[in-house]
Amino acid sequence: MLTLSGTQQVYLATGFTDLRKSIDGLAALVQEGFGLDPFSPSLFVFCNRGRNKLKLLYWDINGFWLVYRRLERGTFQWPTSSEQVVTITSRELHWLLDGLSLHQRQAHTPVPVTVVV
Fold first, then answer.
1. Which stretches of the chain drop beneath a pLDDT of 50?
2. Among the four 49, 53, 103, 106, which has the fewest Cβ within 10 Å?
3. Domain count of the chain?
4. The domain containing residue 88 runs over which residues?
């Protein structure tokens, strides 16, 4: 299971990305294409056209992590959107990595916490 304790945001690059890009190419895409800071404590997720490969980019103290996942069978339920990048929760990321849609009707919805004083 993927665990990144310092991650604040998870950004999904909608559409398809040329996964021949390495760390520098993906970091440039994050900065120039999406207007986001690749050095922030965020996880950036990219998918290929065939929807069977993912790359995850993450900055950690003094260097980047680049995680690559290739499915031998099946595809990821990659979302389409008019936006170039969308923010998802870590829970939704785990759904995506497990081959599920980001919009699970069977999942329990988060309950808002109200503070009673």
1. 1
2. 106
3. 1
4. 9-97
